[in-house]
Fold:
Amino acid sequence: MRSIVVLALAFPPSVLLSSARSQDATDSLMYRDPELPGPRLVEKLPARLPGLWLEALDRPEADIKCQAAQAIALAAERGLIGINTPIDRLVRELGQPDQHQTVRLAVARALVVLDAKEAAADLARAADTDPELQALVDPMLAKWNYKPARTRWLERLDQPPNRGGMILAIQALAMVREEKAIPRLRALALDRHVPAAVRLEAARALGSIQPSGLEPEAEALARDPARSPITDRLVAASMLRHHQDAKAVAQLQQLARDREPAVAAVALARLVELDTKLVVPLLETVLASPDANVRGFGVETLFRQATDAHIRLLGDRLNDAHPANRARASQALRELAAKPEWRNFVIREGTRLVSGTDWRGLEQSAILLAELDHKPTATRLLALLPHERAEVFVAAAWGLRRLAVPETLPPVLEYFEGQYRVILKVGPSAGRKVGHESVDAQLSHLAQFLGQGRYRPADAVLRRLIPPTAGKEPNPAGFETRAAAIWALGWIHEGKPDPELVQAIYGRLSAVGLFDPEDGRVRRMSAIALGRMRAEGMVDKIRPYYSGKPNLDQINNAAGWAIEQLTGEKVPPPGIIETKPLNWFLTSVD
Structure:
């Protein structure tokens, strides 16, 4: 049963986003202010390598031939400039009668990666006598629409259905839409004695090649869902995957209510493609499904068919158990809020969820309302700062920074100082359900908020975060928090360098010794703070950390930016850096 479900999900819905966590949405301002453009890294192939690989193909040792072919394929995959594609040499190796199997596979893969259409006949010939090559070659021959291969694929449909080559042939025939395959595909799809994997593949191919007229077969297979085996219902849904007439739509709507999520997902994918209005009558069933994939179609339907009631249901999805559905619902609500007629409805839902207790809804609504710049949310976010879930704990701090309500600066500073006293006394996460990284992220966002608000009362506590020690003990604040504190102090003292503060921050930029190695994030923000404070007397001390142009080291780039603020010397354009990795097969030593 499990394998059947997995096969059915070969139709992944395009509507779902990848899994999104709160820290993906809650970025740190300090890494974007200022922007530090770096050079583009371009990998260049050493000029002699293609020739060396060709020489290696002429060697008698199979392992050397294999590595040469693999290197050619890898270079082609990376799109490297200047590679000469030795198609004829590869074809010659492919056709050697006593060629080692691993070499033949490596050479065939290289030809496929090189998109060597001129080698189609040779690849087809090799695959005919070598079943291991079929999985590699058949999809490419279908992509190239190599017509001589169709005869062999059709012949494979008459083989016993437990042969692996049959599924490859079915997939290839579907890609080229070979109508001669229709009778045999229909017979395979409807035969209950054929393995489920073959039946499903045949049904998908049949529905692709014949996008109409399969309603009678589908109806016969799924007439009684309570008695029809799951494979029959999957076959029925797959047959209709490209149909669009009214009778097919009615059947798809019935299949979308199926108790088996794999069946429902196939039917819903087609209904959503046709028109999400067709899913509206099914919303109650779809949204109640235990399957995240199925619920995702409901989320997309609510978005595309927006009404007051649907926006409320979309708000409920911020509590969805699956992170992808929560993220998609949040994104959908943001997009709807961009339309004046829906903005108030979206804010209503965000406010409802942020006032609730489910941590999922709290996290998503905090982010949503902050991104919509709904200032009244700030009061609730203050109350959520001590939340026991890390996701809410961090999102509340990020939201307060994003909303930037001046009235929240005093309570944020009070909370920040209290948290720092706690970690000084008992450690970053002692007695908490959140971990050290979450504490570090939260305090970092709050420090950035205090800095962007130029909130001078925060000066004293932020200064305590500069050194790596607190008294005789290591500073328990995380590197993100310390970096943010230094960045914030740069804003608080913008254009007004404090000599004592300047020296303390410079001490972190220059901390590269064996007994005082500073974290790179802290050093980067130290350079930025010195530039922002206009610490002109530090120019000569900053220069050793700047190469004269942008490179891949963000500390270098921050130092360059600081020098530009202090002297007006423009940072050159980042340009391009060419690299020649040394891990190629037969790397040239010159």
Q: What stands out?
A: Residues 375-492 form one domain. Strands lie at 40-43, 469-470, 473-474, 512-513, 516-517, 576-579.
